[in-house]
Amino acid sequence: MNGEERARAAAFAYLADLVEVEAEGVLPRAALTRGAPLDGDRVQLIGAQGIFKPRQLRAPISITTAPPARGREPPYPDVVTADRLEYRYRDVGGQPAPSHWQNEGLRVAMRERLPLVYFYGVEAGWYLAHWPVYVIADDPAHRIFTVALEAGATSVPSDVIAAEAGKAYIVRPTRMRLHQTAFRIRVLRAYQSRCAMCRLHHAELLDAAHILADRDERSTTAASNGLALCKLHHAAFDRHIIGVRPDLVVQVRADILAEVDGPMLRHGLQALDGVRLDIPRRRMDRPDGELLIERYEEFRKAG
What is the tens place of the pLDDT at every residue in 32-65? Predict the structure, then answer.
């Protein structure tokens, strides 16, 4: 094993150890910047730019999709088609720079089939990871590298993988798990692991509910497109049994309010009518007003 191979192997072993100790499989930037130990030195895994090469290597060790800024998706999100990640070139000052050394580094990784790590930003300073990934194509005309997300290690927790496994997504499950896990973490952290409607404070009983459904191509994984809801209220919200008015007040469908049943109906659903949502402290994490208007119209039509 040469020096390049040893450094990459050390990086992958370090990531595996981090996943074991970090909650939710989300890795802190500080640990990634500190890097993997190797022969009395450390191999840094992430840098200021999306394509990162540590000083010990000839080619990059990682590529990164930045977390949303101010509650919004990155301005140039990376795209998946079939089972491939389309990763954009490093540009300089908003201008094309196809020969930039970072782009050239990914070409080296492609020619030599060197394994890299893909970091997916959850929020500032926190990342999910998938490795190894491989650069398999270069498209200078569109300034895009194609990256194969091959079966490998991931920092997405196994229970999330199991929960997502049955969903018929068009894109590769590995990538979708990264998106869905990032969305869940962003939303639950924004709501401090508490249901926005009933205030239940048990993360294992909470979901991240989309305001604009994830099947909608306009949907994002920003916290502002989500609500932390317990499983009962998530199901009721998705089926338009309960809705949220644009003024953040919960409304229960009229026919449900008229029903007569046991205490679960009375206390679990009917009592929510007129309750105001418990929203995040940070303004950028609060429900997007325009999305709430659109979702509320769906609720009204369903009623």
Answer: 999 999 999 999 999 998 999 999 999 999 999 8
Q: 3-158: which CATH number, 2.40.170, 3.30.870, 2.30.280, 2.60.40?
A: 2.30.280
Q: How far apart are the C-alpha atoms of 62 and 15, rounded to whole Å? A: 12
**Coil, strand or helix: which one is 201?**
coil
As given in the structure block, the two tokens for residue 280 are 């995040």
Rg from Cα positions in the chain: 22
Query: Cβ contacts of residue 76 below 8 Å, gap of 6+?
Result: 88
Q: What is the pTM of this model?
A: 0.72
Q: Which helix (H) or strand (E) holds 141?
A: none
Single-letter amino acid code for the residue at 203: A
Task: Look at residues 303, 294, 211, 298 and name the one whose alpha carbon lies nearest to residue 257.
Answer: 303
Question: In three state form, how does the secondary structure of 170-185 look?
Answer: CCCHHHHHHHHHHHHH
Q: How many CB atoms lie within 10 A of CB 196?
A: 28
For 158-202, the pLDDT digits (tens) are 444 333 333 322 233 455 567 788 889 899 999 999 999 999 999
Question: Where does CATH 2.30.280 sit in the chain?
Answer: 3-158
CA-based max dimension of the chain: 73
